[in-house]
Amino acid sequence: xxxxxxxxxxxxxxxxxxxxxxxxxxxxxxxxxxxxxxxxxxxxxxxxxxxxxxxxxxxxxxxxxxxxxxxxxxxxxxxxxxxxxxxxxxxxxxxxxxxxxxxxxxxxxxxxxxxxxxxxxxxxxxxxxxxxxxxxxxxxxxxxxxxxxxxxxxxxxxxxxxxxxxxxxxxxxxxxxxxxxxxxxxxxxxxxxxxxxxxxxxxxxxxxxxxxxxxxxxxxxxxxxxxxxxxxxxxxxxxxxxxxxxxxxxxxxxxxxxxxxxxxxxxxxxxxxxxxxxxxxxxxxxxxxxxxxxxxxxx
Length: 299
Description:
The protein is mostly helical. The protein folds into 3 domains: about 1-25 and about 140-180 and about 190-230, Endonuclease Iii, domain 2, CATH 1.10.1670; about 35-135, Hypothetical protein, domain 2 (Endonuclease III, domain 1); about 240-295, Arc Repressor Mutant, subunit A (Orthogonal Bundle). The radius of gyration is 22 Å and the shape is globular. The longest helix has 17 residues, at about 5-20. The N and C termini lie far apart (about 55 Å). It contains 15 helices and 3 strands. It has helices at about 5-20, 35-45, 50-65, 65-70, 75-80, 90-105, 115, 125-135, 145-155, 165-175, 180-195, 215-220, 240-250, 260-265, 270-280, and strands at about 255-260, 285-290, 290-295.
């Protein structure tokens, strides 16, 4: 573990003080939140905005407050409850994860990062996030927002790279206080600052609690002057769009959907066939009769 310098110690303390008075009241942050709820939130928040996740998360936990409750139902019900969050294979992974938790861990979420990594669909980021936010451990929890914050505040660069590297983990870990509980607070604070203040396009440097120690700001670069920004990816008419339309019909039809109804969703037969075949291959739909498709477990 790298020791903190006075500058990095001050940075963490500033972030924590700001977080204690400014952080959003999100359901997965409230006292008494179970490790299972934290795991569900981390899976749902992958590539999905908080505003879209919150109502689905709350409904999910009301219905399935424990891994055992989810494991007792069909994977099709998990897909149905996922609604329009996007990337619905995450629902399949959460259902599989619940089954493993029941079978191998007595229905409890383990606190050890190695055991978390062995769960279906749990990668390095999610394992560290659950260990940190559910169990108060000391781990670098690095997402896009944290990469950008650390890059600016510590390195004086406009933004982080496209994916988390070993050097990103080292840089974030160096900012964490020695105390595990306070390190977990700092990790949450860094993520919140990156999401709300140190944003990619219009950072609010004037109200940032790190402004007096931020290397990027002190270098005279409060606004990024980097290369061209990435263009937003087109969604309308993509395979992902058509998959979503087909899956939405299946979610609303407990008995399955006739192929003729699915065929009416999109005019391009090649794209429609590719989307339907992909849903079946991914386990999101099953062919229940020669011309009918439904969620797994549908009659």
